[in-house]
């Protein structure tokens, strides 16, 4: 059994905070389950978490809005290129109409890969997403008044990594983190972990001529993908396994308040994270009131008024 159970969250650098809230909440129907700050550095940057109403790992995408600081990141290989969301079969026509009505950029043609229909669309900051049709995702849907359950997003289906070289990364996926190669279609490779299916799929897109992207926190790129592990003991077991295989550039376990994180890079350059599921978002808000108030970890609570005053206001 793999230590990794599937996705925990993805984290992207975006443009404006309100624009980001409008995209995930008002367009996609997700819940803003936590409003807090980036815990690295001195300047306050929002850390916004979106997912289903329970904040379930594997439904979560999080954002750092960087326009206020003016830091740009460079898209390229060695990054997560696409975030892919699960929707039920026969949903894409609904979403195409919705994107048109909301002024969201989307691809003119739908595609099909690994037997699943897909629709490409864009975040206002340029980050790309696919909606992937599947009837295998049983997670709580992200519904809204104008998004019926039969069309609603269920969570992160998969991610697509842009890689200049794939051979060593293929070995890494199986030998280091317990994914199995399930299929290949042209330049695309599909890996699955645990039970497979939505929330447990990683794709490679082999792009040998794409220039390397940046790894800095900044606007316009997906900075890292976090995989779910049960606890810190499993984190350290994974760290020991990576070290034994020669992947020695791994972090210690870092306190992120709602989980603990351990970071490492796969051979293709993409930043991975192992995030624990044993803490959760209910430590500072009741489960039925997630995301209602701006929250800070105990070591920053005395700076709440100062930090809020330096951040752009947002409304849901």
Keywords:
eight-stranded mixed β-sheet; single chain; 2,3-Dihydroxybiphenyl 1,2-Dioxygenase, domain 1; 316 residues; 5 helices; alpha+beta
List the helices and strands and how they pair.
Layout: E1 7-14, H1 17-27, E2 31-37, E3 46-51, E4 60-65, E5 79-87, H2 92-102, E6 111-113, E7 116-122, E8 128-133, E9 155-163, H3 167-175, E10 180-185, E11 188-192, E12 201-206, E13 221-229, H4 232-244, E14 254-255, E15 260-265, E16 271-276, H5 304-310
Parallel strand pairs: 1-4, 5-8, 9-12, 13-16
Antiparallel strand pairs: 1-13, 2-3, 3-4, 5-9, 6-7, 7-8, 10-11, 11-12, 14-15, 15-16
Structure description:
The chain is an alpha+beta fold and 316 residues long. The protein has a single domain (7-310), classed as 2,3-Dihydroxybiphenyl 1,2-Dioxygenase, domain 1 (Roll), CATH 3.10.180. It contains five helices and 16 strands. It has helices at 17-27, 92-102, 167-175, 232-244, 304-310; strands at 7-14, 31-37, 46-51, 60-65, 79-87, 111-113, 116-122, 128-133, 155-163, 180-185, 188-192, 201-206, 221-229, 254-255, 260-265, 271-276. Strands 2-3-4-1-13-16-15-14 form an eight-stranded mixed β-sheet, covered by helices on one side. An eight-stranded mixed β-sheet has the order 6-7-8-5-9-12-11-10, with helices on one face. The protein is globular, with a radius of gyration of 18 Å. It starts with 6 loop residues before the first strand and ends in a 6-residue tail after the last helix.
